[in-house]
Fold this protein.
Amino acid sequence: MSKICVVGTGYVGLVTGTCFADLGNEVTCLDVDNERIQKLINGEMPIYEPGLEQLVLQNTRSGRLTFTTDYPKALQNAEYAFIAVGTPSGTDGEADLQYVRSAAEAIADNVDWPIIVINKSTVPVGTGDWVSEVISQRRSGHPLQFNVVSNPEFLREGSAISDFMNPDRVVLGSLQKEAAEKVSSLYQPLRCTIMITDLRTAEMIKYASNAFLATRISFINEIANICESLGADVNEVARGMGYDKRIGPSFLDAGLGWGGSCFPKDVKALEHMAVLHGTQPQLLQAVMEINRNQRRRVVMKLRKALGSLNEKTIGVLGLAFKPNTDDIRESPALEIIHLLQNEGAHIKAYDPQAMTNASKVLPKVKLCETAYQVAEDADALLLATHWNEFKQLDFSRIFKIMRQPVLLDGRNLWDAEPLRALGFKYIGVGRAVNGTFHEEE
Ligand SMILES: NC(=O)c1ccc[n+]([C@@H]2O[C@H](COP(=O)([O-])OP(=O)(O)OC[C@H]3O[C@@H](n4cnc5c(N)ncnc54)[C@H](O)[C@@H]3O)[C@@H](O)[C@H]2O)c1
């Protein structure tokens, strides 16, 4: 059993702390957000993540997991301090490291014994060295014995616990192999591949992985757009590609483009790092541009189907950036809503989990309680997030209550033919059949 402090109780920190507690360690999770910590102390989850509530309750009851806003208390006797605070985009696309800095300083101020500081936040290459400097400077009068290890996180919101417990790999980077090996012992119970490398390489692995996944999505979206012009079906194209073992099927779903709290800021930060150091990241720039266009294409398609969007009512199904999360950061749905509102459209929307978050940032959107309320009197219905509950809607009912029967399936979730048979104008992403896309459109 090890004594661990996790700084930051967001999607990553809370899952990390809870899972390490579940693996038998004594974990204190700390956050500067008092409301968040009070909720956790009361057994309420500040975020929606499947399975998290039960695991938190189990481990708090066992006494292995506690929550606090008090740094000295959280760090008391800790052998490991994980930094899992946010690293949002700064004004120029760079990662904003102010929260990492204050976490590092607080660790420096509150520890007087050897400690390993582990960066779980996604941070620019070189940040591990910078964190070392921040701590050393803070303790210049009375040096602290510490090591910094980079341990980028690869979990996905919506399946975070299972991703943490069954990782494809754990990456650890440090200039001190012994420190990385100690951190590796925390992951031993998971019996997974543990890769130990140097600090900067570990930091780069995270950015390169996210940029690669974003690239795959932008790639298939570009292919989808070409399919629309040439009369092919991108779903079938992706299926045919995915059988190739060199390619594989994942991250080949055409749609509205990538969003969320990670890909947009991480691709931007990687581009920023590259430019700052004199390289030309042309592919990354194209990947971001394709993603931006994917949102704009929705507006173009709706304009083509409805004419002017001024005073039209568009219903939006799904607001979270992907299913099984309440996270709306950089959600395609939100960006598209803003574009549609700029054209004068009225928006109604519903999401199974993201309504509370959405209500804070979408004051002019009529938030509804069901998909059917959204469809009522709508001139078009846009499927923005492919939640399971949107798979099997009663489309006969929807056909009757919509003002105009236009469906824009932004995630290629629905079968086009039965919907067309019901009388809908169905518009997908890159889904022509035998060259009929233009006729259908
Ligand atoms: N969300 C994901 O799916 C995911 C996946 C992999 C990696 N990451 C990376 O992990 C990091 C955290 O992401 P997240 O989504 O969990 O962020 P988040 O915004 O959900 O949570 C961050 C938390 O840190 C707290 N915080 C900020 N400054 C603090 C400080 N000085 N001391 C204590 N707490 C502080 C905030 O109050 C907040 O609760 C980011 O770098 C992100 O890029 C996220």
